[in-house]
Design brief:
The protein is α+β, with helices and mostly antiparallel strands and about 100 residues long. The protein has one domain. Helices cover about 25% and strands about 20% of the residues. The chain has 4 helices and 5 strands. The longest helix has 10 residues. The N and C termini lie close together (about 5 Å). About 20% of the residues are buried.
Length: about 100
């Protein structure tokens, strides 16, 4: 049996740990950023469920496109980022293909 996990655009995993400023941000928590887990943890949980990961593909869509949308929540999250970074440096959305025997 082949299972394909196609996460919607607001379902994130982390590329790297979030800075403390984002972890303490209410806007980041409400937007699901502060509650996301590392991609490695996502893959570990899938493996613990008895699935074998066959392929992981980072989506071409990047959260940073929200910067041009004038979304007030995104702007609040963006304001918490360390200087010189963007949200896409931390979060990713991916398609994961896994099989269960």
């Amino acid at each position: 049996m082949v299972l394909t996990f196609k996460s919607p655009s607001l379902n994130f995993s982390l590329k790297k740990p979030l800075p403390e400023s984002l972890l303490k941000s209410i806007a980041a928590l409400v937007s699901c950023v502060a509650g996301a887990v590392l991609m490695e943890e996502t893959l570990r949980m899938i493996g613990q469920a008895g699935l074998k990961i066959d392929n992981v593909t980072e989506k071409a869509y990047n959260i940073d496109v929200m910067a041009d949308c004038n979304d007030p929540l995104f702007s609040q999250v963006e304001a918490c980022l360390p200087e010189g970074t963007k949200l896409g440096d931390y979060v990713v959305s991916a398609d994961i293909i896994a099989t269960k025997s």
